[in-house]
Every structure is written in structure tokens, then in C-alpha cells.
Amino acid sequence: MTDRELLELIFTEITGLKAGQERLEGEIVGLRAGQERLEGEIVGLRAGQERLEEGQQRLEARQQRLEARQQRLEARQQRLEARQQRLEDIVTRIENDHGRKLEALFDGWKQNTEQLKRHGEILERIESKLEKHEVEIKVIKGSKNISM
């Protein structure tokens, strides 16, 4: 191989190397652009993740408030149930007391009715005797008037 051929071969190789280097530099520029795009997307993902975490924190705070309200409602419900039980006990006691009182009143009414009935019978007997006595008095007065 001659010097010229060797130089041409070296030149060809160097030209190929330069073309390869330029292609690699283009690919590096593309890779850098892709990397910057990915880094931008990562920044966007991180911002989205932060928004999601903030939203989750707000949801957790709301859930805690709801749980606190639920506990207050349960406490109120227990108080209402206790009041209802007391009212039911009071109503039962009133019903029992009134039942006994009504029974006593009915017994008294029954006794009064029986007493009035007995008094009515006695009054009828007295009236009957009174009528007899009136007749007897008239007879006696009538016989005195005749004898005089």
C-alpha cells in the first residue's frame, strides 16, 4: 500500500468518524432535549403529587370533622334514648297510679250508687208508712168529727 492510498484510507476513516461524531452529537442533543422534557414532566408529576397530597390532607381533615360530628350525634342519640326511657318509665308509673286511682274512684262510685239505692229503698218504705199514717190520721180525724 502506498502512502497515498494510506492517506486516502485514513481520510475516509476520519471523514466517517466525523460523520459518526456529528450523528452522535445530534443524538446527544436529542437525548438532552428528551431528558429536559422528562425532567419537566417529573416536575409536573411532583406538583401533581403535591396537589394530591394536599387534597388527601383536606379529605382527612374533613373525615375527622365528620367523625367528630358523628360522635356528637351518637352522644345526643344516647341522651335522647335515656330521656325516652325516663319518659316511658314516668308514663308507666302514671298509668299505674291513675289505674289504681280510677279503680278506687270506681269502687267509691259503686259504693255511693249502692248507698243511694239503699237510701231510695228506705225512703220508699218511709213514704209508704207516711201514706199509711196519713190515711190513719184522716180516718181518726174523720171518726172524731162524726162523733162530735
From TrEMBL:
GO terms for cellular component: exodeoxyribonuclease VII complex. The keyword RNA-binding does not apply. Residues 45-143 form a coiled coil. It comes from the Bacteria. GO terms for molecular function: exodeoxyribonuclease VII activity. Transmembrane segments: none annotated. GO terms for biological process: DNA catabolic process. Keywords: Coiled coil. The keyword Protein biosynthesis does not apply. Signal peptide: none annotated. This is Chromosome partition protein Smc. The lineage of its organism: Bacteria, Bacillati, Bacillota, Clostridia, Eubacteriales.
